[in-house]
Amino acid sequence: MICTALVPTIETFNLPIFLFITPMFLFSGTFFPVSNLPAWAQLLAQALPLTHLVELCRSLALGRFTNAALVAVVYLAVWSAVLFPLAVIGMRRRLVR
């Protein structure tokens, strides 16, 4: 929603997708394990919220709720607590104009 609030036109909406969303999919362990990545990419992956969401989904799907899944829940809750108000403020500014 933050991307929606920031892009000026629909033609530029692909820019945040290519710059942020696609790299998140590549580094988050969605398609291959994060442990196969180089050390610098593993650090980058741990900073991305999608990595923690993938970890949480895998834990729930396999029925193994571990400490890593608990860390993922906390990490996602913090990201949500920070970014949700920013998204609401941005969308209000865009829609109220």
Biggest sheet layout: none
The radius of gyration over CA amounts to 16 Å
Contiguous helical run count: 5
The share of residues in helices is over 70%
What fraction strand?
A: under 5%
Number of domains: 1
Outline the structure in words.
- It is a single chain.
- The two termini are 17 Å apart.
- It is globular, with a radius of gyration of 16 Å.
- Helices cover 74% and strands 0% of the residues.
- It is mainly α and 97 residues long.
- It contains five helices and no strands.
- The longest helix is centred in the C-terminal third of the chain and has 30 residues, at 67-96.
- The chain has one domain (2-96).
